[in-house]
């Protein structure tokens, strides 16, 4: 009905993107068992046939969705990082930024996928590939933003601990708003991180 | 068929316990959607009617199971703590002990429940009560084992960060054996913890 007609390729890309975003919303709200291709297609306002053309199975749709949003989040993290302060306060600003990746609906969706994969061999293999890549990239971005050198003993593990802590805090936030407690823990963590990264211990 | 007959009360308690243990196994293996009272009853070798007498709904069964094993784990943690070394090395031994609570099938079961609760209002309320209690108790045990004083600024948040980190590491371990990486992160964490708790920062 649109007067301006999109070229077919753009239309196809837009359909795909709507499906990916609807899959994330759906996963975060009703979990894996409720997120079938048909349900996601309806939410996206896309016909079931068109949805299946893009994503033949739920595994394809959901893993693509989580990968897509992970990439988007990393890109956004890099953008926001441009405005970070240098000097004192930077560490805390960095870990708050990183923590944002582990709160909100996108992390909610990822955790549903993760947990579904733990009970499903075939899905697990796909999710492991995805998570290994996302983990490496997030680690690299965190190193860059903190401005630290991984060849110094302990630095690699300290940055890993930061990401593991961020994930644990994200999990604690899943059932109820945990932001006040989280803010205090992150402040303390920033202090410990500064002490550890400057002493090189 | 047993020659020695158990008193009715003991039999009832044993049935209940078999159901709780089967619920944990079931939850860890097939997740929330597959863990109905009927499925768990069958796994436990208990009639569906008897199972429903103990636990009228799946919510009752699964939340009771997670609460039961959380209590068991805490009791076990206190037992094991008796043999912990004092002096150097104690911090690492404590956090390794704490970390054990977040790996293995019990944590797998709890996370399935947790994630199911995030998409189910009624279940969420029950799980929040449960988690608040378990969280407080785990925090208290961690304080005791580390031998630290929460009235010192920063100590409370440092201990909370330890438990959040443990949860994040547990989550990372859900899909594949992550124990080598985890051991390194925990060693580094023990060093940072010792530095932070002795400096009081």
TrEMBL record, chains A, B:
The keyword DNA-binding applies. InterPro entries: Homeodomain-like_sf, HTH-type_TetR-like_transc_reg, HTH_TetR. Keywords: DNA-binding. The keyword DNA-binding applies. PROSITE patterns: HTH_TETR_2. Residues 36-55 bind DNA. Residues 13-73 form the HTH tetR-type domain. PANTHER family: HTH-TYPE TRANSCRIPTIONAL REGULATOR PKSA, HTH-TYPE TRANSCRIPTIONAL REGULATOR RUTR. This is TetR/AcrR family transcriptional regulator. The lineage of its organism: Bacteria, Bacillati, Actinomycetota, Actinomycetes, Pseudonocardiales.
